[in-house]
Amino acid sequence: MEINYQCPRCQWGQTAEENAIGQTLECDHCHEKIEPGTGSFVSGTQQVERCFVCNGDQFYRQKDFNRKLGLGIIIIAAVTSILTENYLPLGVAVVVDSLIFLFLPLITICYKCKGIYRAFEPNPTHGRFELIVHDKHR
Ligand SMILES: [Zn+2]
Ligand SMILES: [Zn+2]
């Protein structure tokens, strides 16, 4: 299990392991101290309930999709298709992208601080991304 989050002060991207939960974190970049949120954020079933960075309790889930990779595959295939005047590579790329997407794991993301929780058990109370909830945290 792994958590990717940004320092609230300098926005430096950082990674924390599961065992960092409940401890005071220090930013590698600006040395800002991040106090852990109160209460438990991972329930007994390893589900995220409360964000350990910002103490937020609203999350959404999405596929752990690398957009740059997905787009890269399509662009390379499109260029190949144009150069060879054959649309097969593009068709194959679309299929490959869809297959990758199908088997991707779900990640849990905090609305408030955009912290990403990887490989935690999915919490059934977390839904898909909702713009209304997102706007509340801006
Ligand atoms: Zn920082
Ligand atoms: Zn958060």
Short précis:
The protein contains three helices and seven strands, in the order E-E-E-E-E-H-H-E-E-H. With 138 residues, it is an alpha+beta fold.
Describe it:
The protein has a 5-stranded antiparallel beta sheet with strand order 2-1-7-6-5, with no helix packed on it. The protein has a two-stranded antiparallel sheet with strand order 3-4. It has helices at 67-84, 88-102, 131-136, and strands at 2-6, 13-17, 25-26, 33-34, 59-63, 106-110, 116-118. It contains 3 helices and 7 strands. The model has no long low-confidence stretch (mean pLDDT 88). It folds into 2 domains: 1-63 and 105-138, no CATH class; 65-104, no CATH class. Helix 1 (67-84) packs antiparallel against helix 2. The two termini are 27 Å apart. The protein has 138 residues and is an alpha+beta fold. Strand 6 (106-110) and strand 7 (116-118) form a beta hairpin.
Distance between the termini: 27 Å
The outline comes out as elongated
* Element-by-element helix/strand order: EEEEEHHEEH
Residue fraction in strands = 15-25%
Average pLDDT figure: 88
> What is the alpha-carbon Rg in Å?
19 Å
Strand arrangement in the largest pleated sheet: 2-1-7-6-5
Unreliable stretches, pLDDT < 50, 5 or more residues?
Answer: none
Largest sheet: 5 strands, antiparallel
| Molecules bound to protein | zinc ion
Any idea how many domains? 2
Strand elements, count: 7
Question: What is the tally of helical segments?
Answer: 3
Q: What structural category arises from helix and sheet content? A: alpha+beta
Helix content: 25-40%
